[in-house]
Amino acid sequence: MKKCLIFPVSMRGVGLLYHFTELALALNKKYINDESLDLYIISENGEQNEGLWDKLKKEIPERQIYIYKSSSEFTSFVESKLNDKSYSKVIYLTQGILQFLQSVPLKRKYFNKLWLYSRLNSFKHGTKYRGPLTFFLSIIFKRYGDFINFQCEYTSRIFRNSKSIFRAGKAGIIPLGLSVEEDIAVNDTKLVSMLDSNKKISIVYLANFHKHKRHMDLITFMKDSLQKNQDLNLILLGEGAYFDKCKELTKRMNLTNQIHFPGRVHRKHIPYILRRADLSIVFSEVETFGHNILEPLFYGTPVVSSNVGIAANVIKDYRNGILLNSTSKEEFIFKVQPFLSKKNLSLNELSKKNIREIYKWDHIVNQYHRMISNIY
User: Fold this and answer.
1) Looking at residue 83, which CATH number applies to its domain?
2) pTM above 0.90, yes or no
């Protein structure tokens, strides 16, 4: 009898996501000729970036793709496969807390025929509710989950009572991956001039403007360096609740010529930006994984980052960046200073090569394959 693998590739209200598209394509490549397993892709309509559906459907046959108006309809599809007697096991790779909780009634009904996985995204980051919520979820995950993917060690540490899930043999760490993409220039004259200047130093922070991302602290901490060095530029990519407040702060500090707010930039332009940036900064209080930490390294740009998400796994001090272990201005200024000179900004080539090897999608999918092969 065959296994059935179901992968939901969307986020509620957004539709098809970029990183899930890449993982779906890598899974399909791995299992396309495997007669012991059927792969199905399910998603809400819509897409995070234009062109994702075209990319997915170019490689994966439409008979394997099912599109719904709402993620609440996903469980009906899963149940139809649970009732299919040709499958000995249905493996459901839920993405995030909501999809997992919606699947609990199926786990109660079908028991071991449903193998329930969950990859953790955010869980009330930046709020006082994170502790109680994660403790409650640890009980639910331990009882109904078969594998909870924390993505990196940091996330397991900030998820209360996660050790009980590990002790039960129901948790592990499989990161997301990346693939090398072509350069596509962005239609923003100021941004391009900052990135392409041989004289100027361009620092990028790729994160939406939420309180726990600490954009306002970053602007305040960098004020003196920016005022002393007119060739230093800070590029804050993204959108969100604190966007206008940060622009106002920049205006009050008279730094509008050196701090640029491009807004939300299409995903296809990110490799172009990261390849040309001199330094990337991640200043967040918390990251579940931290693609904005990993991706600059993948494209050869050093990273100064808070010790969050995957940072401690990939950043080696003064080799490809440096870790910030507190939120203090003094530590930030001391540690970022060596990276504010062109001569100190070349990334160790071996470091970039290692990052690309470890986090390429083929390697990540091999981790999934070992997990799936062990399900009986």
Assistant:
1) 3.40.50.2000
2) yes
